[in-house]
Design brief:
Layout: E1 7-10, H1 14-25, E2 30-34, E3 45-49, H2 55-61, E4 67-70, H3 79-97, E5 100-105, H4 129-146, E6 151-156, E7 159-161, H5 172-180, E8 184-187, E9 196-198, H6 199-211, E10 219-221, H7 230-241, E11 247-250, H8 263-269, H9 285-291, H10 298-313
Parallel strand pairs: 1-2, 1-4, 2-3, 4-5, 5-6, 6-10, 7-9, 8-11
């Protein structure tokens, strides 16, 4: 049965749109919000234009919300300016409405770990500016919850992959060339384990955290596959295509355009390149223990991803 209060999803990129699908499948009334008011949302979705950095606009669009989901994206080069403004907007909407706020987050605040598995208790030891900024933002969200200003929970994921995911290390830089018979692009040491979060699992985790009062006030890691090297993932893709994939590997950070990535992306990402030079292992047992959520087997995730990409290159 459709709930009377809407679940309000901010951002209509891969995470936001996949979450809209998940919430509709659960029978919720869904409102999708972005700056333009234009997006390929499924039937039955209310689509609204609003600026998430405007607290007054956020109070208005969230006034009747049951749950608010922050899946909005800001380009790396504008993080210093936009992330604090986005946070102020989301907290304004959550405070005024009393709705639960589920925040989508990264792993950047942990910084280099030397390959040790990351848990929700791993200290924030970022060496990069972007990682320190993400740590400050997350700490402020949790402080707002602790102080009773808003009801907040945080969901952290690794690199996305899956249908709709193009701008990712396991996105268009891999699947487009793989399907077209060209070498795929990869970063760092591809023989180290690397964490990849299937976009469907991200959406399931966000919807589940928004549904449970006991999920509030803490960080959760979304179900993520960490037991494969990037080379092994490429091998699995090649097996599905019936041929071995060639690889164009960038071994160290650069600040100029490379492959499908423009100069701005490479320059901004250079400080985060350490993630591809050490094992990246994400411990996701907490969300499994609490809610029974486990990562989609990567073989199934890759099948679904290839099917989606085939529709783009056909």
């Amino acid at each position: 049965m459709t709930t009377s209060k809407p679940h309000v999803v901010f951002g209509t990129g891969p995470a936001g749109l996949t979450l809209v699908d998940e919430l509709l499948a659960r029978g919720h009334r869904v409102r999708a919000v972005n700056r333009s008011g234009s997006a390929p949302v499924p039937p039955g979705t209310e689509l609204v234009a609003a600026d998430a950095t405007d607290p007054d606009a956020m109070r208005e669009v969230c006034a009747d919300a049951a749950v608010i989901y922050h899946c909005a994206h800001a380009p790396y080069q504008y993080w210093g300016e936009l992330l604090p403004k986005l946070q102020a907007g989301f907290l304004a909407g959550a405070k005024s409405s009393g709705a639960r706020l589920v925040v989508t987050d990264t792993l950047y605040m942990y910084g280099p770990t030397g390959g040790a598995p990351m848990t929700e208790q791993t200290p924030n030891r970022a060496t990069a500016h972007k990682g320190r900024l993400r740590a400050e933002i997350a700490e402020e969200y949790l402080r707002a919850h602790t102080d009773g200003e808003a009801q907040v929970t945080i969901a952290r994921s690794a690199d996305f992959y899956g249908p709709r995911v193009v701008n990712s290390a396991l996105g268009g830089a891999v699947f487009f060339p793989a399907l077209q018979g060209h070498p795929v692009y990869a970063l760092g040491d591809i023989d180290l384990p690397h964490a990849y979060s299937y976009i469907g699992d991200v959406a399931t985790a966000l919807a589940t955290l928004g549904a449970h009062q006991e999920a509030l006030g803490r960080v959760w890691h979304v179900p993520t596959t960490s037991d494969r090297t990037t080379r092994e993932v490429h091998t699995l893709i090649g097996q599905r295509l019936g041929r071995e994939l060639g690889q164009d590997v960038l071994a160290a950070p650069i600040e100029h355009a490379w492959g499908p990535f423009d100069e701005t992306i490479m320059r901004e990402y250079a400080e985060l390149f350490y993630q591809y030079l050490e094992p990246q292992v994400l411990d996701c047992r907490a969300i499994d223990d609490a809610f029974g959520l486990r990562p989609t087997p990567i073989e199934l995730g890759l099948d679904a991803t290839l099917d989606w990409y085939r529709g783009l290159v056909a």
